[in-house]
Amino acid sequence: MTFTPLFIPDLILFQPRVFEDERGFFFESYQQQRFAEAGINANFVQDNHSRSLRGVLRGLHYQIRQPQGKLVRVIEGEIYDVAVDLRRASPTFGKWAGVVLSASNKQQLWVPPGFAHGFYTLSQSAEVLYKASDYYAPQWERTLRWDDPTLQIDWHYPKEYPPVLSAKDAAGSLLAQAELFD
């Protein structure tokens, strides 16, 4: 297992050790002790599973109270996964990082509490699994605008597949008006 901090060091890309042969493959997608040694000390309380078609953009979501850390992976297809630092006291406040997660690369992204999270579906469809460190609390859920000009997120989408958004995601707040973490 390898754990690689991204441009924002609190975001950690996890690459499992994969054992493959003519029968298929095996890997540990989570092992508490190894994750703790890498600085990920989350107590996961909920697993989520979504399926999205090509062009669907989900996010950027966060919970202002009961913030969730998320361990994100793709089991079918490919996504461009993005996290934005919303912690005012952080030296990387307002910065973002993105990675391609896919069923074929088997990588996972650790998104700690205090970040907005979202993804764009690059493949025909994608199934995303993520572990959450706190329970979903719709009364505390907030959405940051995916296209906020101050963030300048490059979502890596082709022109022929502009983002397909839910009404909630299309109505997200700009960073300047968003509720933030201290």
What features would you highlight for this structure?
Jelly Rolls, six-stranded antiparallel beta sheet, 182 residues
Q: Could you please describe the fold and organization of this structure?
A:
The structure is a single chain. With 182 residues, the protein is mainly beta. The chain has a single domain (44-177), classed as Jelly Rolls (Sandwich). Helices cover 5% and strands 40% of the residues. It has two helices and 13 strands; from the N terminus they run ββββαβββββββββα. The strands form three sheets. Strands 1-2-10-7-12-5 form a six-stranded antiparallel β-sheet, with no helix packed on it. The protein starts with a strand and ends in a 12-residue tail after the last helix. The mean pLDDT is 97.
CATH superfamily: Jelly Rolls
Ends apart, CA distance between termini = 33 Å
Assign the CATH architecture. Sandwich
Q: What is the CATH level 1 assignment?
A: Mainly Beta
Instruction: Going across the biggest sheet, name each strand in turn.
Output: 1-2-10-7-12-5
Secondary structure: elements and pairs:
Layout: E1 2-5, E2 12-15, E3 19-21, E4 24-26, H1 32-37, E5 46-53, E6 57-63, E7 70-76, E8 78-85, E9 96-102, E10 108-111, E11 115-121, E12 125-132, E13 141-143, H2 167-170
Antiparallel strand pairs: 1-2, 2-10, 3-4, 5-12, 6-11, 6-13, 7-10, 7-12, 8-9, 8-11
